[in-house]
């Protein structure tokens, strides 16, 4: 019976995350079908458990050999079963009880804002918190990755103006960091939230979006350093739309050249309903 309740719990949790829109805070929306699939599957398994439980209950009323029922799956001592059920129920408790954190720049500051210069500097090569540049190269071998990047690049270098949407945000940012010289001099317009880096005194503000490449493990803050017009200051978490020219500049805290935007036009915008952008492959 407990198995039935846990499986039904999973079904309800998935349904709850879908309906409340909170699923998007855990995985890339393009993978939503997987969540729906797992929801249906756990529902079917829950039904199977219910039927088995009913059968078992009938059997028990006929015979009193109930000790045979426990031997079928290797967890025969009550405490072992207890542990197994606690482990299974844990994600449900977490999912329902803990609110998903809404994101703001305090996360950027808490994570310590640094630029992964190499895989080695991050520690774990598979799961790296990413900053500024979305890096999908870890999912492909080198030649495939370069081919894909070059193919994507052709869509953007034809025009002098780079238009950034929710759908292509991560792709555009990755291209700008991979091929800065191709983008220098082009005009870019994009939306994001302001982050004042405490590391520099100039009027330099990062304009970021939180992005998810596959799932929360490879999420990060992605965007560009901007040089705002004279006298324009923004508070952390102010949502803005900036338009400006891309150029490359030396950024001392990273000890390297990075692409920047010389902003010509900037305006306050509404914070979007979903703060995340997702990578579409």
UniProtKB/TrEMBL annotation:
Listed InterPro entries: DUF1980, DUF1980_C, DUF1980_N, UPF0703_membrane_permease
Pfam families cross-referenced by the UniProt entry: DUF1980 (PF09323), DUF1980_C (PF21537)
Domain of life: Bacteria
Keyword ATP-binding: no
Keywords, comma-separated and alphabetical: Membrane, Transmembrane, Transmembrane helix
Transmembrane domains' residue ranges: 31-53, 83-101
Start and end residues of each DUF1980 domain: 2-114, 139-279
Protein name stated in the entry: TIGR03943 family protein
Phylogenetic placement of the source organism: Bacteria, Bacillati, Bacillota, Bacilli, Lactobacillales
């Amino acid at each position: 019976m407990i198995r039935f309740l846990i499986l039904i719990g999973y079904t309800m949790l998935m349904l709850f995350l879908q309906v409340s829109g909170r699923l998007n805070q855990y995985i890339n929306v393009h993978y939503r079908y997987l969540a729906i699939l797992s929801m249906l599957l756990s529902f079917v398994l829950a039904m199977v458990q219910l039927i088995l439980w009913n059968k078992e209950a009938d059997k028990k009323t006929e015979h009193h050999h109930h000790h045979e029922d426990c031997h079928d799956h290797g967890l025969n001592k009550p405490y072992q079963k207890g542990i197994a059920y606690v482990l299974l129920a844990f994600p449900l408790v977490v999912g329902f009880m803990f609110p998903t954190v809404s994101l703001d720049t305090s996360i950027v500051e808490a994570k310590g804002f640094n630029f992964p210069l190499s895989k080695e500097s991050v520690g774990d090569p598979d799961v790296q918190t990413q900053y500024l540049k979305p890096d999908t190269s870890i999912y492909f071998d080198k030649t495939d990755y370069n081919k894909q990047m070059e193919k994507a690049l052709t869509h953007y270098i034809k025009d002098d103006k780079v238009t950034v949407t929710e759908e292509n945000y991560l792709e555009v940012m990755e291209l700008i960091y991979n091929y800065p010289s191709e983008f220098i001099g082009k005009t870019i317009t994009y939306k994001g939230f302001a982050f004042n880096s405490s590391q520099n005194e100039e009027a330099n503000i990062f304009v970021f979006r939180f992005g998810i490449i596959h799932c929360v493990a490879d999420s990060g803050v992605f965007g560009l350093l901007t040089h705002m017009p004279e006298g324009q200051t923004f508070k952390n978490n102010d949502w803005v739309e900036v338009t400006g020219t891309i150029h490359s500049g030396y950024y001392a805290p990273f000890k390297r050249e990075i692409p920047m935007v010389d902003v010509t036009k900037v305006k306050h915008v509404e914070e979007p309903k979903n703060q995340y952008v997702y990578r579409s492959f």
